[in-house]
Amino acid sequence: MCVLQGHANRGVFRGFSVREVARGRHFEFRWLTDATFHLRLDALAGTLTFSDLLPNVPYRSAMDRAFRSFVRECTSEQLPAHRRIDRDLAQVRCRNRKGSASLVVTAVGGDFDYATRKAISLVNEIFHGFLRGPYYAYMVENFNEPEE
Predict the structure, then answer these.
(1) Kind plus residue range of the DSSP H or E element containing 40
(2) CB-based burial of residue 52 (10 Å sphere; 0-12 exposed, 13-18 middle, 19+ buried)?
(3) Would you give the distance in Å from CA 86 to the centre of its chain?
(4) pTM reported for the whole predicted model
(5) Rounded to the nearest 10 degrees, how much is the dihedral formed by the CA atoms of 59, 83, 10, 7?
C-alpha cells in the first residue's frame, strides 16, 4: 500500500510496521494519539478495516449511533467533492463488537489507493471533528488526551 508507506515516509505515522496475514496485510502505526492503530487489508474482500478504532463504545449507545451517523454523512452529496467519499469508488460502514467500534472501507472496483486515502481522511475527521466536540471526555479517558 504505497499510500500508507508514503505517510510513514513523511513522518505522519510513527512506528509503522506491516506484516503479511491470510488474505492480505496487517498494518500497525501510531498517529493522532499515542494509541496504536490497526489497519487490516483483506485483498479478497476488497476491504480496509480499522479494527477497534474506538474502544469502550457500547453497542447502540448514543455515541455508537452518533458515530454511525457521522460515518454515513461522509458520503453525502451535500459535502464538497474533495471531502466526500464517492460511493462509486468506496463504501464505508461501522461495526461494533464487544463495545469496540471499527471502521470498514470497501474499495469498489479494487481502487485501494482511493479507498486508503479516503479512509485515512475519515479517521482524521473522526478524531479532529467528531470526537473533539461532545466526546472530548471520551478522548481524555480512552486516548490520554490532556484535560484542559
Answers:
(1) strand 36-42
(2) buried
(3) 16
(4) 0.93
(5) 40
Residue 147 has pLDDT above 90, yes or no: no
* Residues 6+ away with beta carbon under 8 Å from 142: 54, 55, 56
CA angle 142, 145, 148 (to 5 degrees): 130
> Which strands, in side-by-side order, build the sheet including 36-42?
14-21, 24-30, 36-42, 47-54, 100-107, 90-97
- Single-letter residue type at 127: F
7 neighbors 19 (Cβ within 8 angstroms): no
Q: How confident is the model over 7-14, as a mean pLDDT?
A: 91
Q: What pLDDT digit, counting tens, does each position of 32-77 carry?
A: 988 999 999 999 999 999 999 999 999 999 999 999 999 999 999 9
pLDDT at 22 over 60: yes
Q: Tell me which DSSP letter residue 109 carries.
A: G
Q: What is the pLDDT of residue 1?
A: 54
For residue 57, what is its C-alpha cell?
463504545
Give me the sign of the Cα torsion angle 128, 46, 86, 74. Answer: negative
